[in-house]
């Protein structure tokens, strides 16, 4: 086994990584491809990859970030929506052995991929990642939507027509290359984070740079895709995500609040589903976390896990002290709908107060 910075992996190792993912039974999520880890490695000095060899050939890859006292996290923790190790089937690999070789006393994850047998037993919570299945084509998906919620589909279509009449012809670009459109999306998203009382991810330089890099990444397993909905010449909604051959991982959606009454975000997602199906993509992964638009659009869900794997040591104790009380508090609130609704209202109120104070 060797531990390397992502940029120090050689071409042969990267190719084996891609082959292992292609042969796995898991969905082809682009966050699990080497291109995502390579991009994180360029913006995070703590990024590492453990390469496990069997018979002189690479047999497993474990991307992670290493902090103080051996405290580790999933690569790109905080923005990565699918995490875990890339392992050859039937490889005899022990979790503690792997963590010891990496110098890790703990490894934290919040979107662990289903089927990660090394780490799933350590999960503290399971969540649903909502998905849209367009494997049978967009027409089939539209039929499902009309059956599940005929009022929703009819209302959204009517709003799209009204948007066109009042703001200009509606058009959609699935893979927009204009950097100004990406900058506009990031502005909208930052404003949304502040408005809803959440931490602004784009206030962090490394996330800004990561997204900019991935916007220019073009690989079969991991390509940045910026989708934009226009009314006339004006962008009204946009989304930046990552795609593989068969999966579009939805990541950063946002819209211009001035057009909120037209539900441009919903219109955008329907157009994305249609374009993705035409591209041969079978699934849009909307990610974990409850949201009304996900409930309206989803056809199913897949599990992801949150928790941490630990080995005895000071790092494991520090992880428990720093993370577990917070996780338990979140779980307590999440399992009590009225308390969760109050917390959500409080976040939004705090966001409004911060905005008013500027």
* Largest sheet report: 14 strands, mixed
What is the assigned CATH homologous superfamily of the largest domain?
Gcn5-related N-acetyltransferase (GNAT)
The tally of structural domains comes to: 2
Spatial gap, N to C terminus: 52 Å
Spans of at least 5 consecutive residues with low confidence: 350-358
Radius of gyration: 21 Å
Strand residues, percent:
25-35%
Q: Do you know the CATH topology of the largest domain?
A: Aminopeptidase
User: Tell me, what's the shape?
Assistant: elongated
Structural class: alpha+beta
Percent of residues in helices comes to 40-55%
| Mean model confidence by pLDDT | 90
Topology order in helix (H) and strand (E) letters: EHHEEEEHEEHHEHHEEEEHEHEHH
Describe this structure in words.
InterPro entries: Acyl_CoA_acyltransferase, BioF2-like_GNAT_dom. Residues 154-294 form the BioF2-like acetyltransferase domain. This protein is α+β, with helices and mostly antiparallel strands and 358 residues long. It has two domains: 2-129 and 303-350, Aminopeptidase; 135-281, Aminopeptidase, CATH 3.40.630. The protein has helices at 11-23, 34-43, 95-102, 138-148, 150-167, 179-195, 205-215, 264-278, 292-297, 314-334, 337-356, and strands at 2-4, 47-54, 57-66, 71-74, 86-87, 106-113, 123-133, 170-173, 218-219, 222-231, 234-243, 247-255, 283-288, 300-310. Strands 1, 2, 3, 4, 5, 6, 7, 8, 9, 10, 11, 12, 13 and 14 form a 14-stranded mixed β-sheet that branches. Helix 4 (138-148) packs across helix 5. The longest helix has 21 residues, at 314-334. The model is unreliable at 350-358 (pLDDT under 50).
């Amino acid at each position: 086994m060797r531990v390397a910075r992502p940029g120090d992996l050689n071409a042969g190792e990267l190719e084996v990584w891609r082959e292992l993912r292609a042969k796995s039974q898991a969905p082809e999520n682009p966050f699990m491809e080497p291109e995502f880890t390579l991009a994180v490695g360029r913006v995070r000095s703590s990024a590492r990859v453990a390469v496990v060899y069997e018979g002189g050939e690479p047999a497993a890859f474990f991307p992670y970030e290493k902090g103080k006292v051996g405290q580790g996290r999933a690569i790109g923790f905080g923005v990565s929506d699918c995490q875990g190790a890339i392992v050859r089937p039937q490889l005899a690999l022990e979790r503690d052995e792997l963590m010891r070789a990496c110098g890790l006393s703990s490894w934290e994850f919040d979107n662990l991929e289903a089927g990660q047998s090394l780490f799933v037993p350590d999960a503290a919570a399971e969540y649903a990642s909502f998905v849209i299945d367009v494997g049978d084509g967009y027409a089939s998906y539209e039929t499902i939507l009309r059956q599940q919620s005929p009022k929703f589909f009819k209302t959204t279509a009517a709003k799209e027509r009204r948007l066109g009449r009042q703001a200009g012809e509606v058009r959609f670009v699935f893979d927009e290359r204009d950097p100004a459109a990406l900058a506009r999306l990031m502005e909208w998203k930052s404003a949304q984070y502040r408005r809803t009382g959440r931490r602004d991810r784009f206030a962090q330089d490394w996330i800004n740079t990561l997204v900019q890099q991935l916007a220019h990444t073009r690989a079969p397993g991991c390509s940045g895709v910026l989708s934009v909905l226009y009314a006339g010449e004006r962008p009204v909604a946009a989304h930046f995500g990552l795609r593989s051959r068969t999966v579009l991982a939805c990541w950063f959606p946002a819209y211009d609040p001035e057009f909120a009454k037209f539900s441009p975000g919903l219109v955008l997602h329907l157009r994305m589903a249609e374009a993705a199906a035409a591209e041969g993509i079978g699934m849009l992964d909307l990610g974990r976390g409850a949201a009304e638009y996900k409930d309206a659009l989803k056809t199913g869900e897949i599990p992801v896990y949150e928790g941490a794997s630990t080995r005895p040591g000071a790092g494991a104790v520090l992880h428990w002290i720093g993370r577990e009380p917070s996780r338990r508090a979140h779980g307590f609130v999440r399992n009590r709908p009225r308390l969760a609704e109050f917390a959500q209202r409080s976040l939004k109120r705090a966001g409004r107060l911060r905005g008013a104070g500027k």
